Amino acid sequence: MFCHLFSNNWLSLDREAVKKANRMLGMIKRNFVDRSKETIISLYKSLLRPNLEYCCQICSPYYKKDIKLIEGVQRRATKLVTGMKELNYNDRLNQLGLQRLEGRRMRSDLIETFKIVNRKYDVNPELFFQLDEGDRRGHDHKLFKKRFRPNVRKYAFSNRVIDNWNLLSANCVNCSTIDTFKKHLSSELESEAVKFKVSQL
C-alpha cells in the first residue's frame, strides 16, 4: 500500500513538472520573436529544463509513457529554433548541442553515486549501497544489486543506478575528483563500446 501511494506521488510530481514547463514554453512562444539558437536554448536551459530535472534522483520516471511525457517538452522546445522544425529529434539535438533528458538523468545518477561512494557527502555510503564481494571482472567498486518486486523499490535511485555504475571502467570510478570523474564519464557515455541501460519499462 505504501509503495503504491509513494509511486503515485512520484508520477504526480513528474506530471506537475511537465505542466509547469509546458506553460513556460507557451509563454516563450507568445512573447519572444527572436527564435535563434542562442536565445531559445538559453531560455530553455534556464527556465524549462530545471523544472524537468528537479530532484531527478528521487522523482525519476521509469515507465516509458512518463519518460516520453517529460522528453516531449524538450522535443517541442527544440522545434522553436529557427530552421529546426523539419529535422528529426536526434538531428535537432545534435545541431543544438543537447542530449536526451533520459541520458542526463542517468549521468546525474552516476555522479551522485560517485559522490556517495567516495564520501563527498557527509553520509554513510552503506545507507545507500552494498559492495559486491563476488569475484567479478571490472573495477573494484562494483555494487551489489538487490532484487525487489515493487517497482518503487526496483527503480529507486540506490537500485536503478547499480547496473550502469558496474559497467563503468576502473579508470572512471577510481578518479580522485568529481571534475575528473565527470570528464571520464562523459567520454564513456559517448562511447558505443559500452551499452548503458537507459529505458526501464
Task: Note down, in words, how this protein is organized.
The protein is mainly α and 201 residues long. The chain has 10 helices and no strands. The chain is elongated. The chain folds into 2 domains: 2-98, no CATH class; 104-190, no CATH class. Helices cover 59% and strands 0% of the residues. Helix 1 (2-31) packs parallel to helix 3, helix 2 (37-53) runs antiparallel to helix 3 and helix 5 (101-117) packs antiparallel against helix 10. Residues 1-7 have low confidence and may be disordered. The protein starts with a helix and ends in an 11-residue tail after the last helix.
Produce a short descriptive summary.
This protein has 201 residues and is an all-alpha fold. 59% of the residues lie in helices and 0% in strands.
Question: Helical percent range?
Answer: 55-70%
> Would you identify the regions where 5 or more consecutive residues have pLDDT less than 50?
1-7
SSE arrangement, N to C: HHHHHHHHHH
Shape field:
elongated
Radius of gyration: 18 Å
Q: The biggest beta sheet, please?
A: none
Our count of helices gives 10
What is the number of E strands? 0
> Roughly what fraction of the amino acids lie in strands?
under 5%
N-end to C-end Cα span? 21 Å
How many domain modules?
2
Q: Which secondary-structure class do the elements indicate? A: mainly alpha
pLDDT average, as an integer?
87
**Which assembly state applies to the chains in this document?**
single chain
